[in-house]
């Protein structure tokens, strides 16, 4: 009888939480929101040469569209996060997706580089809302004991999206014009907006209980700012290749499909570095591993630069040192993120929103 009474009490106490937990469709929707930013960043990379020719502009202008996108993405995180905490996830998410959709739709009729750059910045501001809110919604709509499993389910897809996005972009470019890439992004955004229209407020809110801490206080911490700078430097090397590689590979005679395929090895290398770091951390601490990883990172950057100076460098020769850099980056990221978060364990929202904008701003 006591056991039955305990079970009944448990079910009564947890009935609301159990019944309010979202289903698989909600998880699929969150996964879609999580990769939308990477699709917006990487899907159009194989189209750089086609866009340069069609818009009659320079390679620098097309490359600047990626830098401007990263800058807009960094800026957006500074205000979308506080707005979602104050006004709720639904209005912020819908507003951001609407802005992103408008930016994608405008790309279908763009005829000059200036308007293209403005629309890419607008897209970054909009899609940033999805990047900010989906992680917060995991904490809002799932019980604490399930959040790690939810993140573990979604993150591998996030990790693979930088490789899959250029492949999808190259396929569209082979069969259609480059505008089809942004038409596809527009259609995906509309699909993601439909569930958002029916989104109900979460039964709990974790953001209101977090201790407030200013961005200035975060930046004053040497441990925090130092690790963020390392994160930013590693990100800058990665995005430098993303910006220049479409033109480099085009000049080497490679088409859109080959350019799209070239992003697969570096993505796999990054994942290998991340999982390898996880295994090595069972034997050594992050502080012990980080100096060695930074040395290897510096060597791989120098090797990539030296190979690039060669007149007849092959794609394989370029990819070997860069993939080594990707492996090291995959190991460095989790270490510096964990170390950056140590000084402020009580304020998860601001520190996350500050780390990413700082690193993306430096990368752009």
Automatic annotation (TrEMBL):
<dbReference type="InterPro" id="IPR004812">
    <property type="entry name" value="Efflux_drug-R_Bcr/CmlA"/>
</dbReference>
<dbReference type="Pfam" id="PF07690">
    <property type="entry name" value="MFS_1"/>
</dbReference>
<feature type="transmembrane region" description="Helical">
    <location>
        <begin position="150"/>
        <end position="172"/>
    </location>
</feature>
<keyword id="KW-0812">Transmembrane</keyword>
<protein>
    <recommendedName>
        <fullName>Bcr/CflA family efflux transporter</fullName>
    </recommendedName>
</protein>
<dbReference type="GO" id="GO:0042910">
    <property type="term" value="F:xenobiotic transmembrane transporter activity"/>
</dbReference>
<keyword id="KW-0997">Cell inner membrane</keyword>
<feature type="domain" description="Major facilitator superfamily (MFS) profile">
    <location>
        <begin position="26"/>
        <end position="364"/>
    </location>
</feature>
<keyword id="KW-0813">Transport</keyword>
<dbReference type="InterPro" id="IPR020846">
    <property type="entry name" value="MFS_dom"/>
</dbReference>
<keyword id="KW-1133">Transmembrane helix</keyword>
<keyword id="KW-1003">Cell membrane</keyword>
<keyword id="KW-0472">Membrane</keyword>
<feature type="transmembrane region" description="Helical">
    <location>
        <begin position="228"/>
        <end position="248"/>
    </location>
</feature>
<dbReference type="GO" id="GO:0005886">
    <property type="term" value="C:plasma membrane"/>
</dbReference>
<feature type="transmembrane region" description="Helical">
    <location>
        <begin position="59"/>
        <end position="80"/>
    </location>
</feature>
<feature type="transmembrane region" description="Helical">
    <location>
        <begin position="117"/>
        <end position="138"/>
    </location>
</feature>
<dbReference type="InterPro" id="IPR011701">
    <property type="entry name" value="MFS"/>
</dbReference>
<feature type="transmembrane region" description="Helical">
    <location>
        <begin position="313"/>
        <end position="336"/>
    </location>
</feature>
<feature type="transmembrane region" description="Helical">
    <location>
        <begin position="92"/>
        <end position="111"/>
    </location>
</feature>
<feature type="transmembrane region" description="Helical">
    <location>
        <begin position="26"/>
        <end position="47"/>
    </location>
</feature>
<feature type="transmembrane region" description="Helical">
    <location>
        <begin position="178"/>
        <end position="197"/>
    </location>
</feature>
<feature type="transmembrane region" description="Helical">
    <location>
        <begin position="289"/>
        <end position="307"/>
    </location>
</feature>
<feature type="transmembrane region" description="Helical">
    <location>
        <begin position="254"/>
        <end position="277"/>
    </location>
</feature>
<dbReference type="InterPro" id="IPR036259">
    <property type="entry name" value="MFS_trans_sf"/>
</dbReference>
<comment type="similarity">
    <text>Belongs to the major facilitator superfamily. Bcr/CmlA family.</text>
</comment>
<dbReference type="GO" id="GO:1990961">
    <property type="term" value="P:xenobiotic detoxification by transmembrane export across the plasma membrane"/>
</dbReference>
């Amino acid at each position: 009888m006591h056991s039955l009474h305990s079970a009944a009490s448990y079910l009564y106490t947890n009935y609301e939480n159990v019944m309010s937990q979202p289903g698989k469709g909600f998880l699929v929707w969150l996964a879609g929101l999580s990769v939308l930013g990477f699709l917006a960043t990487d899907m159009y990379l194989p189209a750089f040469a086609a866009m340069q020719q069609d818009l009659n502009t320079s390679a620098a202008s097309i490359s600047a569209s990626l830098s401007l996108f990263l800058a807009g993405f960094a800026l957006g995180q500074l205000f979308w996060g506080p707005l979602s905490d104050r006004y709720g996830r639904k209005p912020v998410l819908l507003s951001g997706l609407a802005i992103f959709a408008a930016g994608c739709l405008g790309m279908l009729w763009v005829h000059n580089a200036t308007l293209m750059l403005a629309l890419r910045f607008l897209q970054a501001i909009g899609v940033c809302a999805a990047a900010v809110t989906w992680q917060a919604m995991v904490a809002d709509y799932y019980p604490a004991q399930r959040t790690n499993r939810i993140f573990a389910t979604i993150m591998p897809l996030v990790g693979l999206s930088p490789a899959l996005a250029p492949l999808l972009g190259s396929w569209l470019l082979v069969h259609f014009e480059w505008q089809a890439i942004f038409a596809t992004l527009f259609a995906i955004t509309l699909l993601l907006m439909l569930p958002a229209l029916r989104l109900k407020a979460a039964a709990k809110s974790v953001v209101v209980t977090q201790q407030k801490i200013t961005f200035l206080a975060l930046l004053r911490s040497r441990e925090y700012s130092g690790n963020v700078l390392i994160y930013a430097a590693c990100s800058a090397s990665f995005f430098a290749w993303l910006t220049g590689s479409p033109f480099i590979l085009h000049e080497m005679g490679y088409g859109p499909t080959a350019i799209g395929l070239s992003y697969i090895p570096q993505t796999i290398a990054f994942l290998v570095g991340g999982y390898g770091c996880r295994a090595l951390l069972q034997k050594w601490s992050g502080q012990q591993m980080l100096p060695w990883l930074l040395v290897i990172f510096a060597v791989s950057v120098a090797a990539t630069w030296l190979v690039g100076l060669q007149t007849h460098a092959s794609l394989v020769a370029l990819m070997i040192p860069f993939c080594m850099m990707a492996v090291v980056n995959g190991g460095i990221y989790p270490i510096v993120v964990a170390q950056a978060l140590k000084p402020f364990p009580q304020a998860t929202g601001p520190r996350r929103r500050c780390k990413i904008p700082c690193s993306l701003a430096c990368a752009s």
